[in-house]
Amino acid sequence: MRAFLEAIRSGASGDDLANLPLPESYRAALVKADEQAMFDGLDSADKDPRRSLHVEEVAVPELAPDEAHIAVMASSINFNTVWTSIFEPLPTFGFLKRLGKESVWGARHDLPYHVVGSDAAGVVLRVGSAVRNWRPGDKVVVHCNYVDDQDPSSHDDSMLAANQRIWGFETNFGGLADLAVVKANQLMPKPAHLSWEESAVNALCNSTSYRMLVSRNGAQMKQGDVVLVWGATGGIGGYACQYVLNGGGIPVGVVSSPDKARLLNDLGVEAVIDRKAAGYRFWADEHTQDEGEWRRLGKDIRSLVGEDPNIVFEHPGRSTMGASVFVCARGGTIVTCAATSGYQIEYDNRHLWMKLKTIKSSHFANYKEAWEANRLVAKGKIQPLLSATYELADAGEAAFQVHRNLHEGKIGVLCLEDREGQGIDDPEFRATVGEDRITSFRRHGA
Ligand code: NDP
């Protein structure tokens, strides 16, 4: 793969890249099937991705006609890699087995190791015979919606496809590696003004937040809406705040430290709640929620913006859902895509139906939504949330940081490229967007 790196750095043409031989193996971050019981009996918090994520050489898979091999210059850590590496809520090998039964090409994925990672920025090296719109040499980012376009159920909103999957989580050959196998319909143009690692951190979280807030499939935020954003300096929360600000809404960001509160102010969010300082105890004990605490949060929101939130951007799950349903305005929407703190959630249904609120579920994004979200990054309207960069060899440590909530925004991972700040093709446009805006999370984390 080193030859590809040197060729890419020296600006080699697509034909030159196509003529370089692919190696037999490549470096990849993976978990192993024979280790999936290694954390049995431990609490989630004690399951350590540094023990389960290995970086090893694996065989380069053959390419299906609708796929591309890409050289992954950089990738990022998403929470799904944390789930895979702590084998929760289920080991992901079951997903690979199921995919393995679907077709000859699916069978490639059913291996005793799982190469993880659901983001990538890189360069196309090879395309299968059925690929029309991409060729070797194209600089790309990868979104993680993996759909079978021969399935009729994938042709309205592809997130409703019967066998929709998340690449690098429910499939093998993910992005935390020097090389990845992706379907051609996962590819999007790399934003020319960003480095490899700045480009690599956006697709998964940015597209998710776009669907949740902007798309007709989500909460359809409108100008003036008050939006409560949990985890507002986290991956999806940080993009959500940008969408609220860009769309003329009024964000109320919840974070857990004064430092994060300052970062949020820098992003342009004025109304900020520090949940740690406020000391909310929505759960009085393991089984009982405290409506008084929900009410206290509601008062805090009103004291900041004078109104209840029209939209609650929800993902912590069990710890916050009761409060989210309570504080949401009459007729408002709680849009949820996750349950980091527990998926058996509880809320008081009277507060939902009597005030005609809606709980809207959302999951990643279809190709069109991901494309629109990427277009906004490329146009400098949405900024990457890169706060730190790790090397692929340290993928376990990077996942540990996210698991323990020690990070802000997004953690980038250098893969084939081993130097930061490479891959910027349009420095003039970068200067127009503004170095400070592009690197605000990075400077804060430094
Ligand atoms: P991050 O870890 O980057 O951010 C999550 C933020 O949530 C943290 O920064 C933290 O902020 C806040 N948080 C964590 N626990 C709690 C809690 N108990 N109560 C209140 N706030 C909490 O993760 P992401 O933003 O990348 O992802 C968030 C969740 O969304 C994950 O579960 C992930 O798997 C899921 N996800 C789902 C997607 C989908 O397509 N369905 C796509 C992307 C993510 P602070 O401590 O500052 O309050």
Provide structural commentary:
The mean pLDDT is 97. The strands form five sheets. Strands 3, 5, 6, 9, 10, 19 and 20 form a seven-stranded mixed beta sheet that branches. Strands 13-12-11-16-17-18 form a six-stranded parallel beta sheet, with helices on both faces. Strands 2-1-4 form a three-stranded antiparallel beta sheet. By secondary structure, it is an alpha/beta fold. The two termini are 30 Å apart. The protein is globular and about 65 Å long. Strand 12, helix 10 and strand 13 form a beta-alpha-beta unit. NADPH dihydro-nicotinamide-adenine-dinucleotide phosphate binds next to helix 4, helix 8, helix 9 and strand 12.
Furnish the topology, listing elements before pairings.
Layout: H1 2-9, H2 14-19, E1 25-32, H3 49-52, E2 54-59, E3 67-76, H4 79-86, H5 93-100, H6 104-107, E4 113-115, E5 120-127, E6 139-142, E7 145-146, E8 165-166, E9 179-183, E10 187-189, H7 196-200, H8 203-213, E11 226-229, H9 235-246, E12 250-255, H10 258-267, E13 271-274, H11 275-278, E14 283-285, E15 288-289, H12 291-305, E16 311-314, H13 321-327, E17 333-336, H14 349-353, E18 358-361, H15 367-378, E19 386-391, H16 395-403, E20 410-414, H17 427-433, H18 435-438, H19 440-445
Parallel strand pairs: 11-12, 11-16, 12-13, 16-17, 17-18, 19-20
Antiparallel strand pairs: 1-2, 1-4, 3-5, 3-9, 3-20, 5-6, 6-10, 7-8, 14-15
